[in-house]
């Protein structure tokens, strides 16, 4: 009887032990709930890490930009480069300038160097299709975006900037025609082989064709490492060839370096009856136009710093993945001496006297402005 009671107790203990063991397993299996929350934390963290890739600062700050220049000459080029550097730095990037000194083989080599050094984006100033197209195709294949300025280079994925060259030529030629009363003898200073020059020539030919009483008596021009000085020497020779007052009514110069050289030659010769009309405008040019003794009295231009700024904005749009136009035409402004005060002004404050000058908003998106603000805080 006692043995049966003992046996009964042992069976009961074993049953209770099994039950407790089962309960223990249930508590253990229910514990993964917290671990599921813990697992969710890395997922959220991964999502949080991925999010900044869409943030302009995370994706675009610190970009390395290459600026390839065919010929850096005079204050116009200096101010253009300043505009590029200013805008890139505001966006948190850095710029390296490669100057070819008018050597197309060197410019092509500079493009190859920019690709091999893995710059994030490339800006091109002037340059020919023959020299640049092979390298540009490689850059585009490697997903390095390109924005050009006044270049012959033309490929589907490149955004090309130009100054509205025909309009600039029309503005200066129209004023020249009015000032000389629609008749006279003029000298043209121009050079072939540059895309902007070719566009300006279209307007010049139309002007000559529609003004039969205005005659071109001389034409010359060459882009050299000392363009203004060489132009001055050539203009001095033209003045000797036409020594009498009235032989030359006016000079039309298709580039500010040409206008500077011609104006100096005319002023030194005392031929104050001859007036000069130019294209492009820098601080140095503006000083000459404001000088009442200078024969250079008017020019049409885009603020060179604005050109650099706008070019950079469209490059960053490409880096951001935005759709950009194939061509961007910058609006030129006509500037004449009679618009200006007697006190010296610079291109920085020229907008106070000439409506529309400087401060272009072209290519300025809201996210670019945001990127500038965020980069400024770093």
Topology:
Layout: H1 2-30, H2 32-50, H3 56-60, E1 64-69, H4 74-90, E2 94-99, H5 104-116, E3 121-125, H6 129-141, E4 146-149, E5 159-162, H7 165-179, E6 184-189, H8 195-210, E7 214-220, H9 227-241, E8 250-253, H10 256-269, E9 275-279, H11 283-290, E10 296-301, H12 304-320, E11 327-329, E12 333-336, H13 366-376
Helix pairs in contact: 4-12, 5-6, 7-8, 9-10
Protein name: Sugar ABC transporter substrate-binding protein
GO molecular function: carbohydrate binding
Main location: other
CATH level-4 homologous superfamily of the largest domain: Response regulator
The amount of helix comes to 40-55%
Question: Overall pLDDT, averaged?
Answer: 87
Strand content: 15-25%
| Spatial sequence of strands, sheet with the most strands | 2-1-3-4-5-11
- Helix count from the secondary structure assignment: 13
Domain Periplasmic binding protein: 69-322
Biased composition (Low complexity): 29-54
Protein name: Sugar ABC transporter substrate-binding protein
Organism: Paenibacillus psychroresistens
Give a brief rundown of this model:
By secondary structure, the protein is an alpha/beta fold. Helices cover 51% and strands 16% of the residues.
Question: Would you mind describing this structure in some detail?
Answer:
This protein has 378 residues and is α/β, with parallel strands linked by helices. It has two domains: 56-163 and 305-331 and 361-376, Rossmann fold; 165-301, Rossmann fold, CATH 3.40.50.2300. The chain contains 13 helices and twelve strands. The strands form two sheets. Strands 2-1-3-4-5-11 form a six-stranded parallel sheet, with helices on both faces. Helix 11 links the parallel strand 9 and strand 10 (296-301). Helix 4 runs parallel beside helix 12 (304-320), helix 7 runs parallel beside helix 8 (195-210) and helix 9 packs across helix 10. The radius of gyration is 34 Å and the shape is globular. Residues 69-322 form the Periplasmic binding protein domain. InterPro entries: Bact_Solute-Bind_Prot2, Peripla_BP_I, SBP_2_dom. Residues 29-54 have a biased composition (Low complexity).
């Amino acid at each position: 009887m006692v043995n049966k009671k003992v046996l009964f107790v042992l069976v009961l203990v074993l049953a209770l032990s099994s039950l407790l063991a089962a309960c223990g397993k249930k508590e253990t299996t229910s514990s993964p709930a917290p671990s599921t929350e813990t697992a969710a934390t890395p997922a959220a963290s991964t999502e949080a890490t991925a999010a900044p890739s869409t943030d302009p600062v995370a994706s675009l700050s610190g970009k390395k930009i290459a600026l390839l220049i065919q010929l850096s000459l005079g204050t116009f080029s200096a101010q253009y480069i300043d505009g590029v550097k200013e805008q890139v730095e505001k966006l948190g990037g850095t710029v390296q300038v490669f100057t070819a000194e008018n050597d197309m083989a060197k410019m092509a080599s500079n493009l190859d160097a920019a690709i091999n050094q893995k710059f994030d984006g490339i800006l091109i100033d002037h340059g020919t299709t023959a020299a640049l197209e092979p390298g540009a195709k490689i850059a585009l294949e490697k997903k390095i975006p390109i924005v050009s300025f006044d270049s012959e280079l033309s490929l589907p994925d490149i955004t090309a900037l130009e100054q509205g060259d025909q309009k600039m030529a029309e503005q200066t030629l129209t004023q020249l025609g009015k000032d000389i009363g629609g008749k006279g003898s003029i000298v043209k200073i121009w050079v072939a082989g540059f895309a902007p020059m070719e566009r300006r020539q279209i307007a010049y030919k139309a002007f000559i064709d529609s003004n039969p009483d205005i005659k071109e008596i001389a034409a010359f021009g060459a882009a050299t490492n000392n363009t203004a000085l060489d132009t001055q020497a050539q203009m001095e020779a033209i003045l000797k060839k036409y020594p009498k007052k009235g032989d030359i009514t006016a000079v039309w110069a298709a580039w500010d370096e040409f206008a500077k050289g011609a104006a100096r030659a005319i002023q030194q010769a005392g031929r104050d009856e001859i007036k000069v009309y130019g294209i492009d405008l820098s601080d140095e040019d503006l000083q000459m136009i404001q000088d009442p003794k200078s024969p250079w009295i008017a020019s049409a231009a885009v603020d060179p710093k604005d050109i650099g700024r706008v070019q950079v904005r469209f490059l960053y749009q490409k880096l951001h993945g935005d759709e950009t136009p194939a061509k961007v035409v910058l609006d030129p402004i006509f500037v004449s001496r009679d618009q200006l005060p007697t006190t010296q002004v610079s291109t920085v404050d020229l907008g106070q006297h000439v409506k529309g000058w400087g401060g272009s908003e072209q290519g300025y998106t809201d996210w670019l402005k945001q990127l500038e603000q965020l980069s400024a805080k770093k």
